[in-house]
């Protein structure tokens, strides 16, 4: 029998559900290269550490740990084989995530000897300034969490809905589930969806909350106000007056940060410095008085902070001093 889907074989072996033929397939696959054997050994070791019935299994921790530890495998490979290792690890990590989610859903035994007790957990994912992350939720939803942002939720999700809370900014690719709407709460504002792609910016210090829809349809509620948003439209909610305004805009600009693009369009100095602090994890102090009428436009991808500041100097009368995490901007 040809090995056409080794990840299925591996998941069965890890669950102690594989038959003799599947064990034979795994041995054949591992014998083909040292790399294959190292991959399986890494999966087995990490999975074994997580089998304890004393605590609820966290499939996100398993996937993260598999990935992080797999990066530490010290083998001399050329660039092509390194790329294959990353693909294989990612594929098998996803398979293990599926295993855990499946058994959580049906609350059955992980192995004939051990049973996992379903527990509810408060999960909080928090990024400091200068840090961004991608989060895989148990329902298949993927969240890109920006710097100085926090995503929290109860796990597992309720049978009737999937609810998370957001402080800061995040881009969501929500897995479709017609029976369980996905709800994002930000203070008095709530976004309700079934399956879609959208961005929310809701920083406590910002004047406005901004919600932009890339695909699908969402319902936005704020106090007694409610609005249905279609792709390509953006809603701004004033945090002081609760005024809600919608307009057609460029959603790709709003979500540029998910591709590591720092984008400024008609940005004031205050907006520029707040975003630079958040993006690079620095503290900015200003000396002198800038011209409030001046605006800045620019796009930077994977650029050093010094390069961004140099561009600001070209367009505006200013200089800067950069010392570690501290930046002093001087206006002439």
Descriptive notes:
- With 332 residues, the chain is an alpha+beta fold.
- It folds into 3 domains: 6-106, no CATH class; 122-254, Jelly Rolls, CATH 2.60.120.1440; 260-331, 3-Layer(bab) Sandwich (Phage tail protein beta-alpha-beta fold), CATH 3.55.50.30.
- Helix content is 31%, strand content 32%.
- The chain has helices at 6-14, 20-31, 34-49, 59-70, 79-106, 251-254, 269-280, 305-315, and strands at 121-126, 133-136, 142-145, 150-155, 162-173, 182-186, 189-193, 197-202, 208-215, 218-222, 225-229, 233-238, 244-248, 261-267, 283-287, 296-301, 318-323, 326-331.
- Strands 1, 2, 3, 4, 5, 6, 7, 8, 9, 10, 11, 12 and 13 form a 13-stranded mixed β-sheet that branches. A 3-stranded mixed β-sheet has the order 15-18-17, with helices on one face.
- A hairpin with a 5-residue loop joins strand 2 (133-136) and strand 3 (142-145).
- Helix 1 packs across helix 2 (20-31), helix 1 (6-14) packs across helix 5 (79-106) and helix 3 packs antiparallel against helix 4 (59-70).
- The termini are far apart.
- Residues 50-57, 63-85 and 98-118 have low confidence and may be disordered.
């Amino acid at each position: 029998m040809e090995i056409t889907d080794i990840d299925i074989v591996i998941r069965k072996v890890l669950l102690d559900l594989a038959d003799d033929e599947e064990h034979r397939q795994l041995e054949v696959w591992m014998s083909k290269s040292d790399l294959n054997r190292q991959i399986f050994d890494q999966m087995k070791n990490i999975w074994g550490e997580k089998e304890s019935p004393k605590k609820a299994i966290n499939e996100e921790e398993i996937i993260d740990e598999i990935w992080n530890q797999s990066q530490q495998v010290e083998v001399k490979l050329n660039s092509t084989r390194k790329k294959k290792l990353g693909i294989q690890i990612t594929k098998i990590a996803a398979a293990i995530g599926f295993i855990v989610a499946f058994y959580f859903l049906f609350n059955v035994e992980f192995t004939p000897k051990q049973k996992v007790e379903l527990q509810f957990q408060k999960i909080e994912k928090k990024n400091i300034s200068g840090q961004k992350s991608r989060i895989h939720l148990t329902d298949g939803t993927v969240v890109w969490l920006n710097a100085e942002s926090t995503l929290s939720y109860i796990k597992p999700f309720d049978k009737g809905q999937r609810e998370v809370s957001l402080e800061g900014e995040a881009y969501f690719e929500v897995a479709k589930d017609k029976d369980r709407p996905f709800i994002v709460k930000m203070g008095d504002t709530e976004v309700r969806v079934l399956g879609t792609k959208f961005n929310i910016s809701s920083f406590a210090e910002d004047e406005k909350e901004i919600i932009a829809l890339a695909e699908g349809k969402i319902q936005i509620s704020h106090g007694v106000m409610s609005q249905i948003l279609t792709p390509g439209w953006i809603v701004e909610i004033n945090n002081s007056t609760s005024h809600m305004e919608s307009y057609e805009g460029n959603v790709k600009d709003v979500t540029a940060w998910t591709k590591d693009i720092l984008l400024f369009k008609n940005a004031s100095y205050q907006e520029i410095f707040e975003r630079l602090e958040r993006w690079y994890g620095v503290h900015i102090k200003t000396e002198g008085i800038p011209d409030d009428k001046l605006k800045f436009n620019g796009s930077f991808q994977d650029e050093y902070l010094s390069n961004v500041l140099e561009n600001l100097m070209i367009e505006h009368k200013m200089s800067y001093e950069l010392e570690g995490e501290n930046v002093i901007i001087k206006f002439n």
